[in-house]
Amino acid sequence: MIQFSDKDLTARVIRSFETMPDERLKFLLKETVTAVHDLVRRTNLTIAEWNQAITFLTRTGQTCTPLRQEFILLSDVLGISMLVDAVNQPEREGATETTVLGPFYVGEHRPTPHGADLSNGIEGTPMFVQSRVTNLAGVPLAGAEIDVWHADDNGFYDSQKPDYEQQGPSLRARLVADADGRFSFRTILPCSYPIPTDGPVGDLMAATGRHAMRPAHVHFLLRAEGHLPLITHVFLDGDEYLASDAVFGVKDELVARVELRTEPVLPTGEVISSPWHLLSYHFRMKPGAGAVPGPVMSLSE
Amino acid sequence: MIQFSDKDLTARVIRSFETMPDERLKFLLKETVTAVHDLVRRTNLTIAEWNQAITFLTRTGQTCTPLRQEFILLSDVLGISMLVDAVNQPEREGATETTVLGPFYVGEHRPTPHGADLSNGIEGTPMFVQSRVTNLAGVPLAGAEIDVWHADDNGFYDSQKPDYEQQGPSLRARLVADADGRFSFRTILPCSYPIPTDGPVGDLMAATGRHAMRPAHVHFLLRAEGHLPLITHVFLDGDEYLASDAVFGVKDELVARVELRTEPVLPTGEVISSPWHLLSYHFRMKPGAGAVPGPVMSLSE
User: Fold this and answer.
1) Do the Cβ atoms of A179 and A142 come closer than 8 Å?
2) Contact state of A78 with B20 under an 8 Å Cβ cutoff
3) Do residues B76 and B39 share a domain?
4) Could you tell me if residue B301 is inside a domain?
5) How far is B128 from chain A (nearest CA, A)?
């Protein structure tokens, strides 16, 4: 018979993994159990607090839907997602900085011609994005596939809207770089917006007194043969939340100046009657291979 | 502008809690973020592994129902529940040992007279439980309320069965101690059983190669005025899983010998034609006050 003692409980739990065939998973479990047990001891966690934690985690899981990933959001607001990204990017070698995927990537987007308008009727200040993808030496990566997505003027992604299934995507597309590595599209100026605050992560943010805002940005996911997939944002310079992003995602190099333009023609030749903004950004990808993370997982599987 | 660096990311996240009004929650968040960030760095967690963790936690939340609490089960199989119980029980002073509440407590039970049969028609080897509740000095705690619940002959709790709503409770009742602190009931012999293995926790157990068995036991939750609520099990001596309980819940003192009896009368005077088992246990409660944890939380709230 084993006499129970909380002193050797952690060791007993770790010993229970001893015969696991998967060495890496064994190591991860051992480190996770050690970390959580240490946390319980160090904080003298009360039973009521443990109950609150169980309820919080349960609510977080239950808030997830095929189009909403509250656990990714939790990871984001605690800086975990940026840290995971960082420990997986040890040597940048001049490549464009990376940042979080975020919870609003919904998988591959519909292919869209250069210069196309992604707004799908959504109103806002016109913005034209022109961009180029090269390798580290500046050689164009023709055929690179670029998924882009961003929030609207009110801070919502298409996938957050109740009529998403009917309306189809907006402010979301896939472009393919031309022979010179270039791609462009028309859209509207994104604004800074709060992360979803109507779930447990929102309750957590409220309890911390932190604001829930993210500075205005456009998401990019770039894939090119023989190169590491690049997951990043381009942020709009001047945004008041650049220094206090709710998910800690801002890096200086990813902040781009947006020029206000008043000429009545877009780079496509299209006539435009109102002032518009021009966002230019040059992406540099490094050699390698890597899997692209899936979209927000479907929970029905 | 803040230049991002993974070196100071943890410090930045912790600084974001600086102005929180709730000092205890601030401390818990700070320690939790530190522990998780350390874990990510120490394990060099890959993006694919982070994704697996997100998926696992999401599935765990989605597996919870008003009658099933997969996060408690996860906490149980990693020894976290027993540790939380232990750090909250620093001085036992002769009181009965505690163990995990487990995920099958469904809230207050229907009051039941002494000697009643809890089996509600479920077949099994008859067992009679006679018990006594006293304070640390051996003085009977008349009027103490005792919730009991246990699994059937096949290892299932009533609340796990699809017809639970229609059939009503079985092997589950509330008793009230008499003037001498005594209570008794008739039931069937519980058997060792596997924790639910059809969810993510079952997948985890399979990956570890650990068995999912719990040794046979009866759950007790005792409340008496002026005394600390007592949450515990009584285990049946001789069970082959006493030394390897899937949730690490066994303590020597909670193991009771079960006597095989062949006389054709139960202690109630009831005639019985088959051999039966007698389980006797003496509970000692210590002075104090404490909240009883809620049942498996209703997730519809």
Assistant:
1) yes
2) no
3) no
4) no
5) 25
Per-residue pLDDT of B17-67, as tens digits, reads 999 999 999 999 999 999 999 999 999 999 899 999 999 999 999 999 987
A189 and A248 belong to one structural domain = yes
Q: Of A76, A52, A61, which Cα lies nearest the Cα of A194?
A: A76
Q: What are the strands of the beta sheet with A258-261, ordered from one edge?
A: A182-188, A126-135, A276-285, A258-261
Which residues of chain B does A75 touch, with a Cβ-Cβ cutoff of 8 Å?
A: 50, 54
Interchain pair A79, B44: CB under 8 A: no
Nearest-CA distance B116 → chain A (Å): 33
**CATH number of the domain to which A218 belongs:** 2.60.130.10
The predicted pLDDT at position A298 comes to 35
Contact B252 A207 (CB under 8 A): no
Domains of chain A: total: 2
> Which pTM value belongs to this model?
0.88
Cα dist. B121→B67, B170, B175, B218 in Å? Answer: 22, 8, 19, 18
Do B120 and B24 sit in the same domain of this protein? Answer: no
User: Taking CB atoms and an 8 Å cutoff, what residues of chain B touch A291?
Assistant: 48
Alpha carbon of A125 to those of A116, A149, A260, B65: distances in Å? 16, 16, 10, 46
Owning domain of residue B14: 6-45
- For an interface test with A, the pick among B19, B54, B62, B221 (most A C-beta atoms closer than 10 Å) comes out as B54
* Closest C-alpha among A202, A224, A221 to residue A212: A202
Our CA-based measurement puts residue A294 at a distance from the nearest CA of chain B, in whole angstroms, of 9
Instruction: Mutate one of A88, A99, A105, A255 to test the B interface: name it (highest B CB count within 10 A).
Output: A88
Q: What are phi and psi of B138, to 5 degrees?
A: 90, 5
In a domain, B151, yes or no: yes
Of B42, B83, B243, the CB nearest to A2: B243
pLDDT in tens, A190-248: 999 999 999 999 999 999 999 999 999 999 999 999 999 999 999 999 999 999 999 99
